[in-house]
Amino acid sequence: MKILITGGAGYLGSVLVEKLLVAGYEVIVIDKLLFNQTSLLQYTSNPNFKFIYGDVRNEILLEKLCKEADAIIPLAAIVGFPACAADPKLAKEINFNQIVNIVKFGKGKKILYPNTNSGYGIGEGQTECTEESPLNPISVYGQTKCEAENFLKTSTDAIIFRLATVFGVSPRMRTDLLVNDFTYKAITDKYIVVFEKSFRRNFIHIEDVVSAFIFMLNHYDEYRGEIFNVGLSDANLSKQELLEKIQAHVKDFAVVYDDYYEDPDKRDYIVSNEKIEATGWKPEWDLDKGIKQLIQGYQMIVPKMGAEFRNGFPLGYANQT
Ligand SMILES: NC(=O)c1ccc[n+]([C@@H]2O[C@H](COP(=O)([O-])OP(=O)(O)OC[C@H]3O[C@@H](n4cnc5c(N)ncnc54)[C@H](O)[C@@H]3O)[C@@H](O)[C@H]2O)c1
Hints:
Strand order of the largest sheet: 3-2-1-4-5-6-10
CATH class of the largest domain: Alpha Beta
Number of strands: 12
Number of helices: 11
Bound molecules: nicotinamide-adenine-dinucleotide
CATH topology of the largest domain: Rossmann fold
Structural class: alpha/beta
Radius of gyration: 19 Å
Number of domains: 2
C-alpha cells in the first residue's frame, strides 16, 4: 500500500515515516521543510521511500500525488496557536484548503486525519469529553483544524483522530508541547513559571500516536468514518500534577505558579479514550517513560539549541501549548 504523507518531515511525520517503512508500506512525503529539518535523510536509500520538496498549495503537484496513493495522511499544517495567530490567512490555506483539495483529488482513498482535542476546552461543562462532546475552538489554529475535521466528516469516510497533547522525542523535535516544554525548562533553566496550574489536559506519547495511525490503516474498513480520541486514560493531569512527575525525575527543579498569561484555547478538560481502547489498540508509553526519554534526548539536543527554541518566551517562562 502506498501512503502519501503531507508534512511528513514534521514532528509526528518523522516518526510515522520510520514505522510505516519498517511495517513494509511505500511512503511518499511532500514537505516544504519549514524548519530546515533533515529528519528523513536516513531513508533516502530506501526504495519504498520518496521525498518531494514542495508546497501543498501547489494543486497540480498535490493532485498528482493524491492520485498515486492508496491512503493519505495530511499532516502538513501551520501548527499551534502562536504560528496561526501570526498569519491566519496562511493557516487557513494550509490547514483547511489543503484538506478540501485532498478530498477533491483523493476520491475513494483512505484518509487518516489528526485533529487537536484543544477545542474541548470550552465545552459545555462535561466532566469527561467523549467523541460526542462539541468542539468549540477559539484560536485560529483550533478553528482551522476543526473546520477541516467537519469538512472531512461530511464529505468522506475518513478516520479522524482527536489527539491529546503529544509528548516524546522526534528527529524534528518540538519543544513547545507541554510535557516537552516543561521537561526542557526543568533541565535547562532549572525553574519554571506556570500559569493556570490546575488546568487539566490529556497526554499521549508520539510513538503511540503513530501506532494508532498504523492500527487504523490496518483496520480501515472496520472503522471508516469514525472519530477517536487518542490519549492516555491514566494521564488526565493538571499542570501541577505533571510538574510533580517531572520533579520526580529532575532534582532541584523549582516551580513558581503565577497567572501571567492565559491559554487562548482554555484547555481544561478530562478526555475519555474508551472508544479507541475498545478497538483493541493499546498505548505502550506512560508519562514517566516519556519524561525519561525526553531527558535522554535533550542531552543531545540542548547543547545545539539556540534562543529560537524558546519560542519567544523569556528564560523560565513556558509557552504551555
Ligand atoms: N503534535 C501534536 O501535539 C499534535 C496534536 C494534534 C494534532 N496535530 C496535527 O498533526 C499534524 C502534524 O503536527 P506536528 O506536531 O508534526 O507539527 P510540525 O510543525 O512538526 O509538522 C508540520 C509539517 O508540515 C510542513 N508544512 C507546513 N506548511 C507546509 C506547506 N505549505 N507545504 C508542505 N509542507 C508544509 C512543515 O514543514 C512540517 O514538516 C498537524 O496537522 C497538527 O495539527 C499535532
